[in-house]
Amino acid sequence: MYKSFSMELAGRTLTVDVNRVGKQANGCAFMHYGETTVLSTATASDKPRDGIDFFPLSVEYEEKLYSVGKIPGGFNKREGKASENAILTSRVIDRPMRPLFPKDYRNDVTLNNMVMSVDPACRPELVAMLGAAISTCISDIPFDGPCAMTQVGMVDGEFIINPSQEQWDNGDLMLTVASTAQKVIMIEAGANEIPEDKMIEAIYKAHDINQTIIAFINKIVAEVGKPKHEYTSCAIPAEMFEEMKKIVTPEEMEVAVFTDMKQVREENIRNITEKFAEAFAENEEWLAVLDEAVYQYQKKTVRKMILKDHKRPDGRAIDQIRPLSAEVDLIPRVHGSAMFTRGQTQICDVVTLAPLSEIQKVDGLDENVTSKRYMHHYNFPSYSVGETKPSRGPGRREIGHGALAERALIPVLPSEEEFPYTIRAVSETFESNGSTSMASTCASCMSLMAAGVPIKAMVAGISCGLVTGETDDDYLVLTDIQGLEDFFGDMDFKVTGTKKGITAIQMDIKIHGLTRPIVEEAIARTRQARLYIMDECMSKAIAEPRKEVSEYAPKIIQIQIDPAKIGDVVGQRGKTINEIIERTGVKIDITDEGSVSVCGTDKKAMDEAVDMIKIITTDFEAGQIFTGKVISIKEFGAFIEFAPSKEGMVHISKISKERINRVEDVLTLGDTVTVVCLGKDKMGRISFSMKDVPAKAE
């Protein structure tokens, strides 16, 4: 017999069915929020995976198109690889839950969330987040939960808890906050330049809601939760650490890691590892975990240096940013390019502009989002960290970093009416030593300005780190963390924004949450840092968007026509518009509202196409002057084509001021002539005159 649990959440009923379906999983929650239905399961292997030094957690978010009444496209007519939204949702679920599993747990764990029905008023992503937490909490998998997630939107300055899809897409804030019973454990946000104090208010409004959800989860666990199973610990033996300290003293390890050159530090650690391997040659058990033991030794050393001695590995002050440099136009012939360097992190971003017809089509569960006009793609090749491995295309990390930089810049982009282009930015990682996503934000902003995209404000980003001690008050926030401080620290708190406010946040931590003072200090520190980056580095390379797009970028002329005339421009089966395109070589996009975009690189050809469209959509009146080509000669006159599929007739009596006997005496096929409109004849045809054209018009 299954059990059903319900609570009121943001004005709607959240229901969790346990033991109704998926009974062979370690934990299963059949989630219902409004009419949104998600099946969340948690499963674990019986034994740890051999030969690994990490926790093998896999989080899946499966979008079933039947949930919104769609049949998938393509030949197979079934769901294919995960969409970008599915990948990003999986990452948001993974980030708060991973730190709550035991650090020495090596059993494979899979959290699967299958979207089966979507109610636009209840976003399935939120339901999956809650389902993943509940299914894990009630399972026998070791987990230091519960945790809960709440989303906050903002419309007309008012916060909305767990907004509908429309409110989420069109509001000024897209905030997701995960919490434990005591602390905030994850923050993900996109914002329309929200002030820092307003963002903090929203974060802790969500944190308060999370406490009611956690109480609900505790009630479920108390009734149907399974006892947690025993597992084989993969912790490093304490006696091994003691031996390591005799071979390489903590002081020697400190010297090895105390350098701002990543390559030098890695060479030092290689030499130390070889020394340990030689000393432990007879102990196979210790050799099997040597790499993890060296990692832990480095971690203890770096954390002690930072927290107790206030010394960073590269010698910087706690709030000091690494050396900065920026330049634009380093790549010739592209539409816009910029490079941003912060210490040993270096990003080159290239912007490409195209007509609106090249927007990315999006096929997913959100009916409001069917296309993307701005795309940011991030690449992370192995050479950027001095490694060698084949390129297999972007992974989840690359997609996540690209989405973060994309989200950071969307609030400052011009509207389609202001700038009728599709925009693609590509960030190439040349070198990486910490927070390439924030360097991508800075490089992308400058690249957009160099390409002539009239963004509304400059955007920069920076990441703060954290090292904590034994108590909540014992901590140190670090500005601009490098790779080593990220690996061995407790937090990666990324914030992007303008001088006015925040545009994006992504917070990852490895501990069981952050206190409010830490969150407030990190947000304040990132504001101070991003203003410094904009003023002291970015604005010196390029202070504002260029007034014109690159000579190599397509040019676009926009005109407005009467929507009722769209059919005239397109013509029967597209004959008219295709003829304009063939004659001029331009691209033409027409919206249902009558907005026409003419795109090309030849200004003369673009003007010619615009003139043709204007002629086609003009209501003909006597006195209008046209230039056209003779396409047919009859005994009684000649037919003049003055625009694709548009023609009129000049009667033989209207060709010349002198009397002529034959039309051919004056005109031949293909001649270009100037005519004046006389109105329409009895047959409804447009009637022209050549002899009555004013001398000025000729």
From TrEMBL:
* Cofactor names: Mg(2+)
| Source taxon at top rank | Bacteria
**Per its record, what are the GO molecular function terms?**
3'-5'-RNA exonuclease activity; magnesium ion binding; polyribonucleotide nucleotidyltransferase activity; RNA binding
Q: Which Pfam families match?
A: KH_1 (PF00013), PNPase (PF03726), RNase_PH (PF01138), RNase_PH_C (PF03725), S1 (PF00575)
List the GO cellular component terms.
Answer: cytosol
Q: What class of enzyme is it?
A: transferase
Q: Which UniProt keywords apply?
A: Cytoplasm, Magnesium, Metal-binding, Nucleotidyltransferase, RNA-binding, Transferase
Q: Which Gene3D superfamilies match?
A: GHMP Kinase, N-terminal domain (3.30.230.70), K Homology domain, type 1 (3.30.1370.10), Nucleic acid-binding proteins (2.40.50.140)
Q: Where is the S1 motif domain?
A: 623-691
Q: What PROSITE patterns does this protein map onto?
A: KH_TYPE_1, S1
Chain residues that bind Mg(2+) = 486, 492
* Location, primary (coarse class): cytoplasm
Protein location: Cytoplasm
Q: Which InterPro entries match?
A: ExoRNase_PH_dom1, ExoRNase_PH_dom2, ExoRNase_PH_dom2_sf, KH_dom, KH_dom_type_1, KH_dom_type_1_sf, NA-bd_OB-fold, PNPase
GO BP: mRNA catabolic process; RNA processing
Q: Does the keyword Magnesium apply?
A: yes
EC numbers, comma separated: 2.7.7.8
Report the CDD domains cross-referenced here: KH-I_PNPase (cd02393), RNase_PH_PNPase_1 (cd11363), RNase_PH_PNPase_2 (cd11364), S1_PNPase (cd04472)
* Catalytic reactions of this protein: RNA(n+1) + phosphate = RNA(n) + a ribonucleoside 5'-diphosphate
What does the record give as the function of this protein? Involved in mRNA degradation. Catalyzes the phosphorolysis of single-stranded polyribonucleotides processively in the 3'- to 5'-direction.
| Family according to the record | Belongs to the polyribonucleotide nucleotidyltransferase family.
HAMAP family to which the protein is assigned, alphabetical: PNPase
Query: Can you name this protein?
Result: Polyribonucleotide nucleotidyltransferase
The organism encoding this protein is: Roseburia zhanii
Species lineage: Bacteria, Bacillati, Bacillota, Clostridia, Lachnospirales
